[in-house]
Amino acid sequence: MPAIVLVGAQWGDEGKGKATDLIGGQVDYVVKFNGGNNAGHTVVIDGETYALHLLPSGILTPSVTPVIGNGVVIDLGVLFEELDGLEARGVDTSKLVVSANAHLIPSYNRTLDKVTERFLGKRRIGTTGRGIGPTYADKMSRVGLRVQDLFDEKILRQKVEGALEQKNQLLVKVYNRRAADVDEVADELLAYADRLRPMVTDTALLLDQALTDGKVVIMEAGQATLLDVDHGTYPFVTSSNATAGGASTGSGIPPTRIDGVIAVLKAYTTRVGEGPFPTELFGDDGDRLRKAGGEFGTTTGRPRRCGWLDTVIGRYSTRINGTTDLVVTKLDVLTGYDPVPVCVAYDIDGVRHDEMPMTQTEFHHAVPIFEYFEGWDDDITGARTLDDLPPAARRYLEAVEDMCKAPVSAVGVGPGREQIVAIRDLVR
Ligand code: GDP
Ligand code: IMO
Ligand code: MG
Q1: Annotated binding-site ranges for substrate
Q2: Which pTM does this prediction carry?
Q3: Binding positions for GTP (predicted)?
Q4: Which CATH superfamily is domain 103-196 in?
């Protein structure tokens, strides 16, 4: 039975939360495999808005077991705040399981994330300031703290002490900040140990058994293809693998057991933070799209940078992720635009590029080559089948399919759970 990966095709905020929620009823497990509370996934159910950061979006579906995989970095304070917030709204969160191998975000990494950005000045990444980058760096440097360390106090204190030997030099001597205290850091983390303990398990083993038993597992990405640390617009990326390959390492589900990859693609493009963005719109044009799409960050509230659909990126995403299904979201936001520009290739220093260029220097020079599609004026928020859409909207989707080289299986026409044009079953 299927193990399906769900990723973002662009720079995040494509509507992954809504897409996961959409198939929630057909799914047994939803695994978050990368990132942490840098993510912000909004799900709207019966007019109620839920903003999820650290928890997998599947937590809103009662039949789903939500899983925080080994590839995730966990801020324990945020985890319990989010769980309490959902419980207070009547959501049952008791099924959540957490990998013993997931890493913890200690307070000093939140501090380091923020001060590093400040020191970078104009060269800053525009991170969410949640300590994500420093915590993944610690993981790779083998000075990270893991969930399982909470259950061996002596080891935890030793590891915090080891990490702080380096970190305090950095905090005090380079960044002119107060040194972190070993006991203070360890005690803050240990305070959550008893409450976390019953949720912690060997999630890779659990998921292996689930798949063997014929259960349906979705691996839900935080962030997106162009924010992937290997395949994205480095260094303006997050610090984890947000593409389909990351689903295997971040969950323990091997590539040979993965049956499909759903890529969520916004009908236009947005980006939060710094970095290149070829189809970006500025001034009034950017404001109009931002307003139409309500493009303000779920996590930091920052206005998102907005621009037209870029199918060079769409094709790249299909290639890197091995996309089997596209979910196109926010088509309703393009209503009223005529014509609708779509970037089909780049002009880079006088040379046409149909594929993503090899270097970031070239990508920074990319000037979009647009094709112009006929727009539509009709309100499409009530459409539920392709036939309900005006011919121009259908032609737009055909062009997306053609240029991004993957079939469109569902189309979002509004934020609500029911506001979807279903074309093909996503869980097959
Ligand atoms: P994620 O991070 O990929 O889960 O996406 P976000 O939740 O950060 O941003 C997507 C936003 O678009 C949210 O506010 C959703 O409620 C909203 N949304 C999702 N799909 C649609 C859609 O088809 N139409 C409209 N108008 N809004 C949508
Ligand atoms: P979802 O899951 C959009 C961006 C940040 C910054 C860069 C690095 O909601 O799509 P980080 O704090 O991760 O070190 O910041 O990545 N970023 C996102 N942008 N959506 C997200 O998540 C993001 N998570 C991180 O703005 O540019
Ligand atoms: Mg988001």
Answers
A1: 298-304
A2: 0.98
A3: 12-18, 40-42, 304, 330-332, 412-414
A4: Adenylosuccinate Synthetase, subunit A, domain 2 (1.10.300.10)
